[in-house]
Specification:
With 197 residues, the protein is mainly α. The protein contains two helices and no strands. The chain is rod-shaped.
Length: 197
């Protein structure tokens, strides 16, 4: 009887810490999965914000270039008009002024068109780069989340396997205790004693 009670005490002392460890392991698994999901979401959101910021900067730069081109074109045209006004006094000079003004106007238009084209190319290139960057960040975040999830599941699997082995050993100890108790009790009333070899 005392041996069985000792075995039961030993079993009670062994099991609770393992059960606590199993509960902690399961709780940590959920925490790790939640943390991986949260981190992946944060990385995805950061990538989206950075891409949006890059697109906004591109738009502002393009607008600034277009504005500068329009101001420069206006200045050139106004300079041509002023020069034209000064040269209007004589017919030959007037014709030369008209030609000069037309040349300046054509130059201003060509300059403005060139700047528009450059701004459009810059805008398209920057947008493409921002989209590639956002795509890369999203892919990296998803890979990282998948790795964290796999690591957490591997850890839980190993811990549960260890717990299963401990429980198996504890069950074997309990069975030995029951067998020892049954031997000490002897046969139940009405049963024949086991024949020893």
């Amino acid at each position: 009887r005392e041996r069985v009670l000792d075995l039961l005490d030993e079993l009670r002392e062994t099991m609770p810490p393992e059960m606590d460890e199993a509960r902690r392991t399961l709780a940590n698994r959920d925490g790790l999965l939640h943390e991986a999901h949260t981190e992946a979401t944060a990385i995805r959101d950061t990538a989206a914000v950075e891409a949006e910021s890059a697109l906004g900067d591109t738009g502002r730069r393009a607008e600034a270039l277009i504005h500068d081109a329009e101001v420069r074109a206006y200045e050139i045209v106004e300079a041509g008009r002023a020069e034209h006004g000064q040269l209007v006094s004589a017919t030959g000079v007037h014709q030369a002024g008209v030609r000069a003004a037309e040349g300046l106007r054509a130059e201003a238009t060509a300059y403005r068109d060139s700047l528009h084209a450059d701004a459009d190319r810059y805008d398209a290139d920057t947008r493409a780069e921002a989209e590639r960057y956002a795509h890369t960040l999203r892919a990296d975040a998803e890979d990282y989340a998948a790795k964290l999830r796999a690591d957490a599941e591997d850890y839980v699997d190993r811990t549960l396997a260890d717990l299963a082995q401990i429980a198996h050993r504890a069950a074997g100890t309990a069975e030995q205790g029951r067998a020892a108790l049954a031997q000490r009790r002897g046969p139940a009333p009405g049963e024949d004693a086991p024949i020893s070899d």
